[in-house]
Design goal:
This protein is α/β, with parallel strands linked by helices. The longest helix is centred in the middle third of the chain and has 65 residues.
Length: 909
């Protein structure tokens, strides 16, 4: 009897061990199934992360990394990341195009939250709150300029303001170095540097009785390193920013930190994370990762149900004390002196960190063993209770099945309407041959079918793909991953029309079919193509600007020497030839100016001009091509008063209208184009009319919109305009130019009859300095010493010859150093300076002149071939009398020199 009991007991222990092993194997599977169930049960959240700038900027990338540290690994969150690229593009038209692009991409997606990174993205979201992101809560980070008056109880946004805390950084530094008596602030004179200085000056009263402050700002890098090397051991350095020194040399944050730390014998404290790890001890640090991480945590609160208006906007609370252990030890500091909660980097590894996997594994093993034992006990105790509750649960489930069946039958009808009325095409097709199994009416119409029934009967997917390889690629992705999202490809309608579609589908291998949605994105693809064309035009404009600059220098010599030759020649054939050269050079100057205006590198040069003369010059540029096409040109240039305009820009507007009118006459017999100028009630006007094809009424309101065109691929296939290329930018640019002149532009058109554009400008009289030019014509200034600084030898010879003829003494040189030496050793009343010079450019030369005593400083006139809109006149830093653009006319140059010398002589008197 005892042996039997022993056998039963042994068998029980064996059973217990088997159960124990099975439990160990089942626990991971049970946990995995629980996680899977939770993932399936949780609804997917859609978050749009809108970056202001482009990928690759250190600050932006760190902010993005901070956001992804919170949401990047969550399976229940779908992150949509967009880069606005506003460091490179920031026009109103570009932002409007972005809005349309985002409307297409996210119009059908319910966004749960938007995270905007930096100011431009936050402002964009606010501007399009009502039309694009209605009702979506917004969390921002990296915002510098936040209006506190917007922080109202009913706000729809919150976030993190980018703010540095100079006071906390200085306090932590003095806590580590209590014997310090001087804080040396290293800073530059840039706009950022000036803002940094204000923050330091606001914090200084807090430390009045503790330390002195010394600013090192206007230094070259070698001078700064020399001064820092002299500091004693009672000084501390607070490095804010030193990206550009006194000589104009530019340094990256890392480079400036390495240069300064290499020569600084005292501890260096900072307020930004990009200095850490390169010699800085630390401080109260703000960083892109902290900004993005804090904003993402706020967003997580919103997703968890917290109202966004209850989450306060935070500033420097997102900052963190960070210290470099190696730099701290080198500076003589100890960890006990650091502020509470400070983060330590470069800290030596502890025993725990070296053996962490082993320690954690052991702890987990012990916990798992204890958990298993507890489960076995709970299982034995709860078994009897579970058996009693099982019967009750079965009865409850039977009732719930009956209730859910009734609910399903009621909701089926409701969701049928949702399926039929969806704003996207919904389909189900067989995976193997693409046969249609189900769809809604919108999907059928996308492919040119009348209704759902016709689509199911006649649709076989392979026949409706323009490129069969694209379908194979899509199916490969679906079979591998089970799902495909926003797969873009070209499709064909029933009648053969090609359109762009965006596919999203899921594969059900057990049933052998695909289910998904399709959206027609043809309009969006056309917009993207127009944006690419615009970028190509910008590249052409940059190339044109460079060519025009070099041509301006050449044309200056041609025009100038031609003028000198005309003045020296007697009447005759040679003089006539030279006069023709001069006129051709003037025409080349106008062509170059038009080229620069078109490329966007020259604008805003307002002056007195006659609208009839501008229209006549514009017509001259296009007349040859127009008349070659057999178009009859009529003109009616009226007597009109002069007004203040930019003749180059206005000429470009008229030229655009003439070219558009000639395009409208393509393939039309007896084509006529008429240009009329006149005045009416305080306005001057230009009318360009044609008897061309005309513009349909539905397009009249769109003709001034960017990228809108009815030419080329956007015209009727068999129409004459199909052969004419157009970008859709000409009338948009013209409209902007007219508005900038406070003018008006109108269009009247009738299909088959013709079109008339009318441009009107207010009559304005020129005022101020430009109208008071009689000083140069009433008196002649005394002969003066004039210095010419230009690296072009022909231009130096031209100016030297002309100035000597004018009765002046002239020194012409191509070296800035030689010119400075001449002014130091002699007396010059006037200096003509080119801006773009090798070795020492014109701006550096002028700065050196302004450091001389007032009595040694000549009047400065800039002679430049630069093609940008930069206008040096009026800058107090330079005190330049006049800017003369190449190529110039010697008579105009003579008048400006006369006025400048007379004004100088009157000041002396």
């Amino acid at each position: 009897m005892g042996k039997i009991i022993l056998s039963v007991t042994d068998c029980g222990w064996r059973c217990l061990l088997v159960c124990f092993a099975l439990i160990c194997l089942c626990i991971p599977a049970y946990c995995a199934s629980e996680r899977t169930a939770m993932a399936v049960a949780k609804p997917e959240k859609h978050i749009l992360v809108l970056n202001s700038y482009n990928r690759g900027l250190d600050w932006s990338d760190e902010e993005q990394r901070g956001v992804e540290s919170v949401f990047g690994t969550r399976e229940d969150v779908e992150l949509y990341v967009e880069y606005m690229d506003t460091k490179r593009q920031f026009s109103a038209g570009y932002l409007s195009s972005l809005a349309e692009l985002y409307r297409m991409k996210y119009g059908g997606i319910k966004l749960d939250i938007i995270i905007s990174i930096d100011d431009n993205a936050f402002n964009f979201v606010r501007d399009h709150r009502d039309d694009l992101f209605r009702g979506v809560p917004v969390v921002f980070c990296g915002v510098n300029y936040f209006d506190k008056s917007l922080d109202t109880p009913d706000r729809y946004y919150t976030g993190v303001i980018e703010a540095i805390n100079v006071s906390k950084t200085i306090s932590s530094a003095l806590g580590i170095h209590p014997l310090a008596d001087t804080v040396v602030v290293v800073n530059d004179r840039t706009t950022t540097g000036k803002s940094n200085r204000k923050l330091v000056e606001e914090a200084m009263p807090e430390f009045t009785d503790k330390v002195k402050f010394r600013f090192m700002e206007d230094y070259s890098m070698p001078e700064l390193k020399t001064e820092l090397f002299k500091l004693d051991d009672k000084s501390l350095v607070l490095l804010l920013s030193f990206n550009r020194d006194r000589l104009g040399n530019v340094f990256s944050y890392r480079k400036s930190m390495e240069e300064i730390s290499s020569s600084c014998p005292v501890p260096i404290y900072v307020v930004w994370d990009f200095y850490m790890g390169h010699g800085a001890v630390g401080g109260c640090i703000t960083g892109g990762f902290m900004q993005g991480n804090s904003a993402a945590k706020m967003g997580l609160d919103v997703l968890n149900g917290r109202r966004i208006s209850e989450i306060p906007v935070i500033g420097d609370r997102a900052n963190q004390y960070v210290f470099d252990y190696e730099a701290l030890v080198k500076a003589g500091g100890v960890l006990e002196d650091l502020p509470a909660g400070a983060k330590i980097i470069n800290h030596p590894e502890s025993f725990y960190s070296r053996h962490q996997p082993v320690i954690v594994g052991a702890v987990i093993f012990i916990l798992v063993e204890g958990f298993i034992i507890a489960m076995l006990i709970a299982n034995i105790v709860g078994r009897s209770k579970a058996e009693r509750e099982l019967q009750q649960a079965n009865e409850y489930l039977e009732r719930r099945v009956e209730e859910r069946t009734a609910d399903f039958l009621a909701s089926r009808s409701k969701y049928q309407h949702l399926f039929d009325d969806a704003l996207v095409g919904i389909f189900r097709t067989r995976e193997d041959d693409g046969k249609a199994l189900e769809c809604n009416d919108l999907c059928a119409r996308l492919f040119g079918f009348e209704n759902r029934k016709e689509f199911i009967l006649g649709f076989m997917a392979p026949a409706f793909y323009v490129n069969a390889a694209e379908r194979d690629q899509m199916l490969e992705i679906i079979r591998e991953k089970g799902i495909v999202r926003s797969f873009e490809l070209q499709l064909r309608k029933k009648d053969g029309t090609v359109f762009w579609g965006s596919y999203s589908a899921k594969f059900y291998p057990e049933d052998g079919y695909l289910e998904g949605t399709i959206i027609d994105i043809s309009e969006r693809k056309a917009l993207e193509e127009q944006l690419i064309r615009s970028e190509r035009m910008a590249a052409v404009g940059t190339l044109a600007g460079g060519v025009a600059h070099e041509f301006n220098n050449i044309n200056t010599s041609i025009l100038g020497f031609a003028e000198l030759a005309v003045s020296e020649c007697a009447e005759g054939l040679v003089k006539d030839y030279i006069e023709r050269i001069r006129r051709s050079a003037l025409r080349a100057r106008n062509i170059t100016t038009n080229l620069l205006t078109f490329s966007g590198q020259k604008s805003g040069l307002v002056q007195k001009a006659n609208i009839s003369a501008v229209a006549e010059e514009s017509l001259a540029l296009a007349r040859r091509n127009i008349e070659t096409d057999g178009i009859v040109v009529e003109t009616a240039f009226g007597e009109v008063p002069d007004t203040v305009i930019d003749p180059q820009q206005v000429g470009q507007v008229i030229l655009n209208l003439i070219i558009n009118a000639s395009h409208a006459l393509t393939g039309r017999e007896n084509g006529r184009l008429k240009i009329t100028t006149g005045q009416d009630d305080g306005w001057v006007f230009v009318k360009v009319a044609d008897n061309g094809c005309g513009i349909p009424k539905e397009n009249l309101s769109k003709v001034f919109s960017p990228f809108f065109t009815t030419k080329g691929e956007h015209a009727d296939i068999d129409g004459p305009m199909a052969k004419v290329k157009g970008t859709g930018l000409g009338l948009s640019i013209s409209h902007t130019i007219v508005e900038n002149h406070s003018g008006e532009i109108d269009v009247k058109s009738e299909v088959g009859v013709g079109t008339e554009f009318c441009v009107r400008f207010p009559i304005r009289r020129i005022s101020g300095k430009n109208s008071e030019t009689t000083i140069g014509t009433t008196r002649r200034p005394p002969s003066s010493n004039v210095l010419v600084l230009d690296d072009e030898e022909d231009i130096r010879d031209l100016l030297h010859t002309f100035l000597v003829q004018e009765g002046h003494t002239c020194l012409a040189t191509g070296s800035g150093a030689e010119a400075l030496e001449a002014i130091c050793s002699g007396e010059y009343q006037l200096a003509l300076v080119d801006l773009q010079m090798p070795d020492m450019n014109g701006v550096s030369f002028i700065r050196n002149i302004r450091r001389m005593p007032k009595e040694k400083q000549p009047t400065i006139m800039v002679v430049t071939g630069k093609t940008t809109d930069e206008n040096i006149e009026g800058y107090a830093e330079f005190e330049v009398s006049e800017t003369i653009r190449k190529p110039f006319i010697l008579k105009e140059l003579s008048d400006k020199i006369r006025i400048a010398l007379l004004e100088r002589s009157e000041k002396v008197l």
